[in-house]
Amino acid sequence: MGFAMKKILCIGLCVLLFAGCGGYATVSSERFESMDTFMQLELYGSEATTVAVKEEILRLDGLFSATNADSDVYRLNRDGSARIDAATREVLGKTQEYSVLLDNDLDIFVYPLVEAWGFISRDYTIPDSAAIAALLPAAQTAAVTLSADNQAQITEQGAKLDLGAVAKGYAADRAVDMMRAQGVSSGILNLGGTVAAVGKKPTGEPWRVGISDPDNSAAYFGSVLCSDRFVATSGNYERYFERDGRRYCHIINPRTGYPVDNGTVSVTIISDNGFKSDALSTALFVKGADGAQAFWQEHPDFDYILLDDSGDLYITEGIADSFRLLSGYDYTVHTIKSGRA
């Protein structure tokens, strides 16, 4: 069985195990592929709302895909400028704001570097240092100018962007907004590594969301209780290749042009906003354990769980009591405290 299929099975397993609400309310569900992953929606509401949420996610995928020739992002990358949908404009604006906040550890312009390493074509290769040096300046300095009439322009010639680090989080926010507009106050949405735990179970209990085991994508090493929270995970096990015993993951360090190799295995963000959780999971993965802690202590409006390759598990104090490490895992758990009175 291929890695992608095992990942799909794990996603479905986590949602089904933690739903646990059969007999309490009418559940409407959808399972489909979008944004290069498998998605599962479980809403305690009408089928019409569930279908509408699915269609909106598919619409956003059609706007944000870097490989679909009809998408806003593809046209912007190809032509350097394009008239874009209001949703694309909003995502681009928010992403650039977060990039500044995160000291550019979130960089949507590393797409040419991701291509150079073969993560788009899956023809994996290690580029020579000259090729990386040629691509790096545009990735580090490019931006998008946005006009009031939804016209967008990339400021650096040859620069290309990819919204993969934030697209699922934005889609999760849109989905939850639609649910609430239709009076749906309970559900669990798994958008392939980004989970929206809406309200509580019909039993009145919070949702328990699983965190994938990096060594076995059909399992999970722990779980966290959530209500009205978004949980997003980035890891070096999602897309990678190995050469000469070394793993190269798909998350590119925007300062070096090389895949991140700082000892971090996975970062899970829990917050009240899907876009935030998705963006921070990538950026804190780039920052590593020390950088993640420093950033969180300056901006403690979210929680995180960080696993490193030594088996150390770092958990912020806000979710320490709701986290459960499953039996069979001997990770050393460290609680990160804010240091604030």
CATH topology category name of the largest domain: T-fold
- Element string (H = helix, E = strand): HEEHHEHHHEEHEEEEEEEEHEEEE
Task: Summarize the amount of helix as a percent range.
Answer: 25-40%
Lateral strand order in the biggest sheet: 1-2-6-7-10-13-14-15-17
What structural class is derived from the secondary structure elements?
alpha+beta
Q: What coarse outline follows from CA principal-axis ratios?
A: globular
What is the mean predicted local confidence, pLDDT?
91
Termini gap: 51 Å
Gyration radius (Cα, Å) is 19 Å
The CATH architecture designation of the largest domain is Roll
Low-confidence stretches: 1-24
CATH superfamily of the largest domain: ApbE-like domains
**The CATH class of the largest domain:** Alpha Beta
Question: How does this structure look, described?
Answer:
With 341 residues, the chain is α+β, with helices and mostly antiparallel strands. It has two domains: 231 residues, Roll (T-fold), CATH 3.10.520; 85 residues, ApbE-like superfamily (T-fold, Orthogonal Bundle). Helices cover 35% and strands 27% of the residues. A hairpin with a 3-residue loop joins β14 and β15. It starts with a helix and ends in a 5-residue tail after the last strand. The N terminus is likely disordered.
Briefly, what is this?
This protein is an alpha+beta fold.
